Amino acid sequence: VLSGFISVVLFLGLDSGIARLFADANDDSERKQIFSQVTFCMLFFLITVLPIIYSYRNIILFNYIGDISHGDLFGILLINLFFYLFIQNFLGLFKWTFDKLNYFVLSFGHAILTIIISIYYIKFLDLGLESVFYGQLSSSSIFIVVGLLQAKKYLTTRISLNYIRSAYCVGIPICLISVLGNVIFIIERKTI
After folding, report:
1. What is the pLDDT of residues 38-87, one digit of tens each?
2. What does the pLDDT read at residue 33?
3. CB-hemisphere CA count at 13 Å for 167?
4. Distance between CA 11 and CA 16 in Å, rounded?
5. Which residues contact 81 (CB under 8 A, 6 or more apart)?
6. Which of 23, 45, 61, 166 is deepest in the core (most CB within 10 A)?
7. 53, 6 in Cβ contact below 8 A?
8. In a 3-state reduction of DSSP, which class is residue 180?
9. How many CA atoms lie within 13 A of 168 on its CB side?
C-alpha cells in the first residue's frame, strides 16, 4: 500500500497524462517528443528524488509501521518501484503503438527472469523473502536496458519540456482520485 501511494504521489498521474497526449498526437515526431519528455522526466526523478526518499526510508517506515527493522528491504522496494514504473512506461508505449512483439518480450521476459533469478537467490544464496525483492531488482535492471533498446526509435535527444505540463494537467486529477483511494487504505491499516 505504501509503495503504491508513493508511486502515485511521486509521478502525479504522469503515466495517465502521457497516454492521453500520445493518443491525441498528430504524427510520429510529436509522439517522439511526448514519450521522450516523459521518459526524461522519469529519469530525472530516478536520479534526484529516489536518493532523497531512499535516504529517509527508515523515517518513512517508522512513521508508517513504527519499526525500522525492515529498512533495507523497504529501500530495495523503493528502487524496484522506480524501475517498475520505468518498465511500465515502455509497456505503455508498446501498447499505444500496437507493438505486440516488444510488449510480449518486455512483459513476459521480465516476469520469467524475475522468477528464475528469485529461485536462484532462494536456492543458492539462501536469502529467503529478500530473494524476491533482489530477483525483481536484478530483472528490472536488465529489462530497463532492454526497454530502452526496444523504444529507441521513439526517443529523441532534442527535448523541450512543453508536453510535460499538459501531461500533468491530464494526470493530476487522476492522481488525486488514486491518492484518495490509497489514503483510505492507509487510514484503515493504521486504525485497525
Report:
1. 888 888 888 888 888 888 888 877 777 777 777 788 888 888 888 888 89
2. 84
3. 27
4. 10
5. 3, 6, 7
6. 61
7. yes
8. helix
9. 12
Report H helices in 56-151: 57-65, 71-96, 100-124, 130-150
Query: Residue type at 142?
Result: I
Are 87 and 110 spatial neighbours (Cβ–Cβ below 8 Å)? Answer: yes
Amino acid at position 149, single letter: L
Q: Which helix (H) or strand (E) holds 47?
A: helix 28-55
Sign of CA dihedral 156, 157, 158, 161: positive
Name the more confident of 48 and 102. 102
Q: Is the predicted pLDDT of residue 192 greater than 70, yes or no?
A: no
Q: How far apart are CA 35 and CA 30, in angstroms?
A: 9
Terminal Cα-to-Cα distance of the chain (whole angstroms): 15
Q: Compute and round to an integer the Cα radius of gyration of the chain.
A: 18
